Amino acid sequence: MSTQHSKLAEDKWEKSILDYLSILFKDQWIPSHDVTHHRRVWQNAKEFIRSIESKFQKEDEYFFEKLIITSFFHDTGLLRDKSELHGKLSRDICVDFLQQYQDKIRFDTSGMLEVIENHDKKNYLDSSDKSFNALFDILSIADDFDAFGAIGAYRYMEIYLMRNIKLDLIPENILINAAKRHSNFIVVLNKIQIPFPEMNAKYDELKNLFSALSFKENAVTLVEWVNESIVKPRNIPSIYLHDVKKEIIQNERILAFILKYNKEVNR
Predict the structure, then answer these.
(1) Are residues 2 and 119 located together in one domain of the fold?
(2) Same domain, 259 and 153
C-alpha cells in the first residue's frame, strides 16, 4: 500500500524513470538486477516506511522523491560493471537521467547520489545528516530484503556466475554474504524501529536452499543447473522456471527452488 507522500513521489517520477530505464536495459540480459529488481526494492521501501511516513517527511520534505530515484538507479551500474564496484557507475547513470529530466529539481541531489554510489557499503552510515542516513538505511534494507528467499537465491547465483566465481564456491559465498545482509537488516530495523517479521522467514528460505544438510543433493548441483538451464542460454528465469516440466526434475533441491521461486513471483 502506498502512503500519501510516497504516492506523490511515484506520480511525479515513476513514468520518467521507467521510460529512461526501458531504453537503458533494452537488449541487455541481466534479469537478476533488471527493472523488476529495482521496482521490488521500491515496493519494499514503501512497505518498510508505510507506518512511519511522517517521521521521514519531517526530516526531509523531498525524502520520498530521493527514495524512488535511489531505488530505481542503485544497481544500474551493473550494466557496465558486474563487480561490487558498480555503485560509481550507477551514480553516473543517475546523473545522466537527472540532466535529461524535464522539470525543475527542487532538492540538492548530492547526498542522494552518494547513497547510490555507496549502497553496497554496509558501514557507510556515519553521516551527521539524519535525512541522508534515513535514505541510506531504507534503501539498504529494501535491497537486502530482495536478496532473500528464492528470488534472492537466483539473483545471487546469476551475478556470482557472471563474476566467474567457481561454481563449487558459490553456495558458501552466498551464505556468507546473506548472513552479513541479515545482520545489517536487523541493525537498521532496530535503529529505525520498524517491525518486519517476514524478514526471518525469507532469510531462512535462502539458507535452506544452500545449506549442505537441507537436501541429499549437494548445493552446487543447484548452481550448476541454474548455470546450464538459465544463465548460459540467457533464458528469462521467470518464464523458464514457470514453464519447466517439474515432473522430470529428480533433484529435490532444484525442485524446491523452482517451486519457491514461482510462488514468490506469483505473489
Answers:
(1) yes
(2) yes
* Grid cell at residue 172: 558458501
pLDDT tens digits, one per residue of 176-215: 999 999 988 888 888 777 766 677 899 999 999 999 999 9
Please tell me the total count of domains within the chain.
2
Examine the fold and report which residue of 109, 139, 169 is the final residue of a domain before the chain moves on. Answer: 139
Q: What is the pTM of this model?
A: 0.89
Distance separating the N- and C-terminal Cα atoms of the chain: 14
Identity at 126, one-letter amino acid code: D
Contacts 24+ apart (CB under 8 A), 93-96: 93/24, 94/69
42-81, pLDDT tens digit by residue? Answer: 999 988 887 566 565 556 678 899 999 999 999 999 999 8
> Quick one: cell of 258?
523452482
Residues 27 and 81 in one domain: yes
